[in-house]
Task: structure prediction
Amino acid sequence: MNLSDKHDAEHQSAPLKRVTTRRLQDMKKKQKKISCLTAYDALIARIIDEAGIDLILVGDSLGNVVQGHETTIPVTLEDIIYHTKAVVKGVQRALVVADMPFMSYQISPEEAFRNAGRLMKEAGASAVKIEGGHRVAKAVRKMTEAGIPVMAHLGLTPQSINQFGSYRPRGESEQEAEEIMKDALELEQAGAFAIVLEKIPMQLAQKITSSLMVPTIGIGAGPHCDGQILVYSDMVGLTIDFSPRFVRRYDNLQERISHSVDSYIQDIRNCNFPSIDESY
Ligand code: KIV
Result:
């Protein structure tokens, strides 16, 4: 056995080390970029976990991707529990974070705490995510003090779409940029283990990233964040009618699935499927 075979054998037999919030913070210190994707079911979660992703978010984007809603507002806590249970079954290594849906954390820190507890106890999430700045800081503190790791989310927070009125980038004016910066510092103080920065200018994301000890995870926030996240179905080209500038498409699965289904239909119609070999 040569050295590289030995390394491979050891690598294969070594138990997979679960990614923890501490590990993500170490990665920031060591300037190792953090890779994140969303997933909503065990099948996709298993594939992206085995590929080596660091963090899987059961995002309330499932409202758009899975349920076909226009916004994330209709997503319920029960929906997130259901999908998180499925994702957790498919994951061995990545940190699984469950998104707290609209109205599951805004009423009071106590209500946020109770609901986050359900996401951990019933669904098996290792952490939760919550949208907003100053107005959710008390809830973040309450949860983190009780041992629930919280990832915060600033910038374009989709649950506030009716207040924002559009999906334009946030933080472009000096006043908005200052607010986001202040919120980021307050959320770190409140105990957030990481902060998602969505659709803000890259210079602002860079400034926030260098001001915080905890990692920033960007989506449409430029290359200076400590990590990046995309919705998996955008990244693999399943949702091709949604094409903001920040999505990089690594495949065109919509076209490929459509081709496969077309071939299947033709095979059935032409009596080419099933063959004798595919029969009993
Ligand atoms: O719901 C979601 O998928 C998200 C990510 C895009 C950050 O919040």
Notes: Residues 15-249 form a domain with the TIM Barrel fold (CATH 3.20.20.60). The two ends are 45 Å apart (CA to CA). Residues 38, 57, 59-61, 99, 153, 196, 198, 219, 229, 231 surround 3-methyl-2-oxobutanoic acid (CB under 6 Å). The chain is about 45% helix and 15% strand.
